[in-house]
Amino acid sequence: MSRRRGNGEGTVRRRGDGRWEARYRDATGLRKSVFGKTQADVLAKLKAARNDRDLGLPARSERLTTAAYLTKWIDGARVNVRPTTAIRYEGLIRRHLIPRLGRIPLARLSAQDLGRCYAGMIGEGLAPRTAGHAHRVLGRALRDAEASGLVVRNVARLTRAPRVPYQEMHALSIDEAHRLIEAAHGDRLEALVVLALSTGAREGELLALRWSDVDLDAGVVRIQRTLLRTPTGLTFAEPKTASSRRSIPIGRATVAALRAHRQRQATERLTDLAFANTLGGPVNAGEMLRAFYALLTRAGLPRVRFHDLRHTAATLMLGAGVHAKIVAERLGHSTPMLTLTVYSHVTPTMQRAAADELDAVLSRP
Questions:
Q1: N vs C: which end of the chain shows fewer Cβ within 10 Å?
Q2: Which of 174, 235, 247 is nearest to 208 (CA)?
Q3: Cα end-to-end distance, the chain, whole Å
Q4: How many whole angstroms separate alpha carbon 198 and alpha carbon 184?
Q5: pTM here?
Q6: Residue 143 lies in a domain
């Protein structure tokens, strides 16, 4: 049975094979068809096709699969993101999204499909955080597909991201930080550990540091670049964000550790890298971490990430009453609000200290 609609609105009918078909004319007057399993399905596709026609957008192709689109999208996205980000995106797309969603036509991708994809990832033992990263990458890809008229809407916006369990960061206490510094005394990593604890700089920023970025007389370290690991090897790149490019004042103990480190380094191959391997090249992060874990064992401390030294620096600064804006500037955060959000566990102690100080000021002599 056919049902005619208004002029140019299209004709809907049920075919002999049980599928529904809607016919309409495109902007050039050519007759086009869309198909669906139900009448409601085909009416929705007909409406989308007419909207595309009226807006001058290209027709959505039922033959364009999600796999084909994502493969093309990641190739184009490389030029707009950092190399390590592109590698992470590609890994999520090729290992997780395409195997689970690739065969579905892009125009028919639904929120339910995404939900099943994430549930499948977690059910196979992947971390909810990994599924969450996949959701964000897919959301970016579908946002571009929506802007290009390839899909009616970005269904990732209709899908709840997988819930990520709270992971408490591991910051060393003052006593533990002292024990680590003592264990590192005279070690090749001594200056790196001291600088990480005193500045809160990121691992890649420290390993990319040049002596020309360090002013020991003025006591200032300038973060100008970062070290990245790519498929072709180690490479230097711009800092993570605009706020990551910064100058960090350092204290006398840190200056002394850097002077001693530079003197030891002078007996090896000459290099401008502040932290280099024995050949003067950039340090391999894997080798550095093995040496760092050995220091933790020597200090009798639990195994923490090198990145946790950044958390330690931030926590100790905030706990000592350093203003959040200063902490944010040293860490390279875009705003103090970000710093306070990440380190909200420290604020109750700060609030108690503020209350005690106000109480002392307001109390009668």
A1: C
A2: 235
A3: 94
A4: 14
A5: 0.67
A6: yes
User: 284, 304, 324 — which closes off a domain?
Assistant: 304
* Amino acid of residue 229: R
> How would you class 57 by CB atoms within 10 Å of its CB: exposed for 0-12, middle for 13-18, buried for 19 or more?
middle
Nearest-angstrom CA–CA distance, 65 and 101: 9
pLDDT tens-digit readout, 182-203: 999 999 999 999 999 999 999 9
The range of the structural domain enclosing residue 265 comes to 174-304
pLDDT tens per residue, range 313-338: 999 998 888 899 999 999 999 899 88
Contact (Cβ atoms closer than 8 angstroms) between residue 288 and residue 306: yes
**DSSP 8-state symbol, 282:** B
- Return d(Cα 169, Cα 312) in angstroms, integer: 9
Number of domains making up the chain = 3
> Which element (helix H / strand E) includes 43?
helix 39-55
Per-residue tokens: 39: 């009448």
180: domain CATH number is 1.10.443.10
**23/131 same-domain check:** no
Give Rg (Cα) of the chain.
28
